[in-house]
Amino acid sequence: GGGGGGGGAPDLLVLGGGAWDRLHVYATDEDQKSHRQTVRELSQEMRKTRASGTPVAWVVPTTINTPALNTEDKRDHMREEDMEEMRGAYANAGVLSASSFVLDGPSFTAERVADSYDGVHYPPRVYDAGTQILANAMDWLLPEMVDDDPFVPPSPGKMANPFLGMMMLCFVFIGLMFFDGFMGFSYLASLFVRGVMPNDLYEEAFTALHRKMKLPASKSSSGSSSKKSSSRGGGEGGGEGGGSVASSANGGSASTGVDLSRRSGSGRSGSITPSRRAAARSDVTAGSDASSKVDEEIVALLGPTGADLELGARK
To answer: Keywords assigned by UniProt (predicted)?
Structure first.
C-alpha cells in the first residue's frame, strides 16, 4: 500500500498468501494448526484496517502448473490439488469476507497455465491483466456523486412561439409563390441587371427538364420559342428568295415589299419583275422619309450595281 504522506494510513493495502505457506509451514500437524491460528488473526486485523478507512485487497493464489514444477519439494507439496485445499482454508478463516476486494488468481490464469514456465510464476503480461482487474475495482477512490441540482429538461412546447412559427410559414409561402428563396433580394437585383427576374429564371431553368422528360412546355417558354423560330424563318426567307420591309412616316404608313430572286454566281445583284418594281415605286412615293429608308434597304439588298439600276429607273 502507498502512504498518504506524512506517515499516515495507506491508501490501499494489498495482501496475498498460500503458495509458499503450503510449501514451507504446512508439512506437520503442528504447522497446520499454527497456520490456521495465524490466518484467523490476519482476518481480524484486516477487518480493523477496513474499519479505520483503509481498503484491503486480497489476492488468491494463481493456478499451479503441476507438470512444470522444477523441484521435488514443490511436486510433493505445491500441486494444484494442494493449492485448492489451501484456498479453501483461507476462505474458511474469514479472509475473503474481511477484504474490500478479492482478486481471484485462478480466474485470470486458468487458461494461461501453459505460460507458467516454472509451475508457479507467470510472465508479466499475465500479472498485468490481474493488475488491471484490481485497478478497475477501485471504485472507492471515486468522489461521491452530488445530486443537489438535478437536470430537468424543458417540457415539450415550452420553447415554442406561435408568432415566430407563423412568420416562418409566411416566408416559406412568399418564397414558393414568387419563385424567390432569397427573401426578395433576387427582385432587388433585377432593378440593376436585366433578365434575372426570378419567374424568368424559373422558366429558363425548367424548360430543359420539361423537354427532356417530354412534358408540356409552359406558356412563356413556348412563346419565346415561337418568337425565335419566326425570326429564324424570316432570316432564312430573306437569304433565299425575298423579304419584306415595312416603314412608316409622318403619321401615315407606307409599306414596300421587295422580292429578290435566288442569287446567282458571286454577285449580289438580283432581277425584279416590272410589276413588282411598279408596286414598290408607288409605295415609296408616300413620303420622303419612307423613300430614303427604302433606298437604304434597296442598297443593302441589291448591292451598289442593282441599286443604281433600280433607283435610276424609279427616277
So the answer is: Membrane, Transmembrane, Transmembrane helix
